[in-house]
Amino acid sequence: MVSGTMPFLRQWQRQIFFLSAVFLLISSIFLGRLRFDKDLENRFLPEDPAWSARQYEKSLFGGGEEVFLLSEWEGTISPRELLRKTDQWKEELSLIPGVSRVISLFDLPPLREEPDKAVTHPFARKNFLKKDGRGTVLVLSLESGLEKSAKGQELLQLLEDWIDRQEGPWRMALAGALPFQARAVREAHREAIFIGGLVFLLLTGLLACFFRSWRGALLVVLAGLLSITATFGLAGLWGTALNQFALIIIPVILAVGLLDHVHLFFGYSLAREEGMLPEEALGRLYAELAVPCFWTSSTTIAGFAALLVSSVSQIRQFGALGMLGTAVAYLVSFGFLPWLLFRFDFRKRPAVSRRLQEFLRPRRPVWVVACALFLMGAALPGVLRVRVTPDFPNLFRRHHPITHELERIEREWGGLATISFLLTLKEGIEPSDPRLIERLRDFSSLLAGRELVTAVVSPLDFLTAAAQNHQGTLGSLPLQEEKGTLFPDWLNLKERTLRVVARVRMMQPEKFPSLASDLYGFQKNLADLFHVRLTGWPLLFKNLEYRLLDEMGAGFLLALAAIGLQLLIALRSVRLWLLALIPNLVPLTVVFGVLGWSGHGFSSGLLLAPGIALGLLADNTIHYCFRLRRGMKATGSLATAMEETIHKAGLPMVLTALVLVVGFSALFLSVFRGNQILAAVIIAVVILGLAGDLILFPSLLLLFKGARRIF
Fold first, then answer.
1. Contact call for residues 195 and 670 (beta carbons, < 8 A)
2. Among candidates 630, 590, 693, 588, which has minimal Cα distance to 360?
3. CA–CA dist 418, 257 (Å, integer)
4. What's the CA gap between 613 and 592, in Å, rounded?
5. What is the pTM of this model?
6. How confident is the model at residue 481 (pLDDT cuts 50, 70, 90)?
7. Number of neighbours of residue 74 by Cβ within 10 angstroms
8. What is the pLDDT of residues 130-179, one digit of tens each?
9. What torsion, rounded to 10 degrees, do the Cα atoms 612, 617, 621, 626 define?
10. Which of 133, 356, 593, 661 is the most buried (most CB within 10 A)?
11. Which neighbouring-strand residues pair with 142?
């Protein structure tokens, strides 16, 4: 096979390199067409009832997103001074493009004439003042549609600049869903560059130690960077708008793309050390590695393809970029890198420890298999204990400033996340029905008694604030005549709809499922008088998380079926395929079993892990089987073939596992908890998978009496 490949290489190696270089150059040109997605709402599900209710709420009560401006002070500020200052702030903020309206506690009718009552006013204390009275909140209503464009982030920057210009005793900060998401996007952009650079340095150092050549390490890593450049260039060609999920794919593609490069570098160096000519070394690379690397790339692509089942465009984009990056890396490996290896002619074989080879020599196979079965048996009950554990808004690591700020807001302000009940009168129910006021009052009281609910606002509260008599009926309320008040924001008589808003705490996500259950229970209890719609950022994010976690299971099963089929085709033996599945399933079972036993459920941080981990697990299994089959054909002895496999493939397998470990370990420095969880799971699975391929799999083959006949 080598002799048949060599003439082809001699004739076409320059053409292959030239075509590969042209492809990389052209794809890189389109990097300039890349753009970042500024729509902070496109992750939500259009079919989610909470999303349609949100759009309905906007249509009834006007405006777009709301941003909260928290203003705090030390010492004592007189109510009249606070009135003067808030009026000044409102005037200045109203001039900022994109701000349609600014609301303060002095927009409540009694307080503008009598500001001294602000501190004792129950409605003002509940909704506009800090718990200790040393802070007030201004509600900024933004123009509709800003959250869907770059103007939304530009507006937030203008608001932050305005805050920086304020003087005096005021300590100000922006809060709300839009600022939270914008800060998350900025953090994602910032850390993508840092983590990508760190992975480059770490992998270069690791490869230099094993290759005993800085030049060889840089060559391999630069080939990986070419893969990344071409991947994002092709994405630019398609006019892709990148989101924050896509940025973290950069170090992932770099680490995954280097796997084939490592095998090629090691194989070429070993062939040259054995005395082969450069052309012969290249021929052996193609003959021995082109097919197994094709299958390893295919299984990795299948792992990323599992993400395409997601209904969220950001997750699908991550999967698509992973698939594209893996395919481009294979093209670089066999279209570009071999010519560079030939050009620089690396002859020094990577360093290998004899102790490592001795350690990997199969011994005590019965004990090895027994230990693996014991671990699986102990882990399986843990897998069954794994539960879905939504973690929004705990997206950032525990000690990150954003996390501390969110916790402080909940502790000192009672939280600012809101859930809206949109209550539309049913046909036949008139606003004059006396049951409405009583039901609304009872409902507000029950809602306020839920554990995470800190305040409830309804039209009745506004009437109390305005000193109106609300003992009558909804139809008797003079809301249309209340110009300049907040009444029209809470009751739309034309559409026969009112809204009740609950402020909730969000930093205890483990308690939210219970609250959500109560909320939907209230929805059913009100169904005799109202058509009830529920919406709010907490519900949108929770529904999104549950949907994604459900899709994760479907994606994993799809990846398992696809990768299993690929393995069967690649190995061409049902019995060998069944044996090869065991070292791939044991690591996943053990890792997720440990998660179950430790009480850590499936959170959004694990969305990407199962499919990707399974795709990466199969890589070393394929290389081991292909090398072992070649050794069996050459020697006819299973023991000798295993020694030859360990000698030629053992170190590259260890090194590729280390590349993945080092590459993903950089994610531990991420500010996002999800990235850290993903890194921990992938690293654990890769390490256990390496042990499965180099220790468990050989032991299974030695115990299987028909092992010689399956190769």
1. yes
2. 693
3. 44
4. 12
5. 0.84
6. very low
7. 9
8. 888 889 999 888 877 665 556 777 888 899 999 999 888 889 999 887 88
9. 30
10. 593
11. 99
